[in-house]
Specification:
This protein folds into 2 domains: about 1-90 and about 270-343, no CATH class; about 105-240, Isopropylmalate Dehydrogenase. The protein is about 40% helix and about 20% strand. It is built from 11 helices and 12 strands. The protein has a 10-stranded mixed sheet with strand order 2-1-3-12-11-4-5-10-8-9, sandwiched between helices. Strands 6-7 form a two-stranded antiparallel ribbon. The longest helix has 18 residues, at about 145-160. It is globular. The protein starts with 5 loop residues before the first strand and ends with a helix.
Length: about 350
């Protein structure tokens, strides 16, 4: 997606620490040599509970106009807004990078640079199940060709762009039909990318091998629930759930991205909301991913490097062992960003 003269971004405002994260993003955005038009949608719990589908309708309409969104953490009480908007916009792929950050303490001492591409639909999450009598329950696990093909294409394009190999992973020896279909589609897509190495791993073995030999894995393509498990494992290995960021994508008939939504992995953190001590790393990395997506990788890279530099220098929020509040940490990032952009 090319960057227009003015970049319009749907901004899904959230709950808890959401306003503080929003302020951090805007502080960074104001320092960029790029015209940004944030178009806010109130997605607070109060508004969603009061207005129901109207809040979802407004978000969907805005995202279809802008084709680009940044989402802050939201509380789920009766209905998950994340699940609703994924269905409305037909998001089929979740992309979650996980990388070691110097200055973030972790028990895992190896370097990790993992790019998890997850099919965002189906799997065991597609059906909550139902009771069978008093003592049993059943659910249907569905794997569909179209979202798998979109996720596989995304994974191989990502790998080609960065010179990475792709590993597709599932339990194809046990789930022979569902996971077998997933692996067959992955192999079919791989044939269109002869320059990208492709391997297959059983998912349980992959979890061990990522820890033993993390350098062997870069882009990992997985089904919905496996991606959920692997993403949390990766966050644990890098030492913080609060530094995670992800992109959600829907596609047109030619496999081009139709709508992209970026959000942090962390939650609303109601215990610290309003105290100006939350860690905005996840949302700033999400914003950097957004800049990459609109082909301003120069700005996305500069933002990531500025953020990593601040943390490595010990200028971080309390959860990462630093002494800065949210505003001070953001200022440390902005100061470094200004220096990098001035070069």
């Amino acid at each position: 997606m090319a960057s227009p003269a003015t970049l319009r971004i749907t901004e899904l405002r959230g709950d808890g620490i959401g306003p503080e994260l929003e302020a951090s993003v805007h502080q960074v955005a104001d320092s960029l040599p790029l015209a940004l038009d944030f178009q806010p949608v109130d997605w607070s719990l109060e508004r969603r509970e009061r207005d129901g589908d109207d809040a979802i309708d407004e978000a969907e309409a805005s995202m279809r106009r802008t084709r680009l969104a940044l989402k802050y953490p939201t509380v789920t009480r009766t209905r998950s807004p994340n699940r609703l908007i994924r269905r409305r916009c037909d998001f089929s792929v979740i992309y979650r990078p996980a990388a070691t950050i110097a200055g973030v303490d972790s028990n895992f001492k190896e370097k990790l640079d993992l790019h998890i591409v997850r099919v965002a639909t189906g799997g065991t999450y597609g059906d909550p199940g139902q009771s069978v009598g008093r003592d049993a329950a059943v659910s249907i696990r569905m794997v569909e060709r179209k979202p798998v093909e979109e996720a596989a294409t995304f994974a191989f394009e990502l790998a080609r762009r960065h010179g990475f190999p792709v590993t597709s992973s599932s339990k194809y020896t046990i789930q022979r039909v569902t996971d077998g279909l997933f692996e067959q589609v992955a192999r079919d897509v791989a044939q269109r990318y002869p320059d990208v190495p492709h391997s297959v791993e059983l998912f349980d073995a992959l979890l061990a091998k990522v820890i033993i030999k993390p350098d062997n894995y870069r882009v990992v393509l997985v089904l919905n629930e496996y991606g959920d498990f692997l993403s949390d494992l990766a966050s644990g290995l890098v030492g913080s759930l609060g530094t995670g960021a992800s992109g959600n994508f829907s596609f047109d008939a030619d496999h081009r991205v139709a709508i992209a939504l970026f959000d942090p992995a962390g939650g609303t953190a109601p215990d610290i909301a309003g105290k100006n001590i939350c860690n905005p790393t996840g949302i700033l990395l999400s914003f950097a991913m957004l800049l990459d997506h609109v082909e301003r990788r120069d700005l996305g890279t500069a933002l990531r490097q500025s953020l990593y530099s601040a943390i490595a220098d010990g200028e971080a929020t309390g959860d990462l062992g630093g002494a800065l509040n949210t505003t001070e940490f953001t200022r440390a990032v902005v100061d470094r960003l200004g220096d990098r952009l001035a070069v």
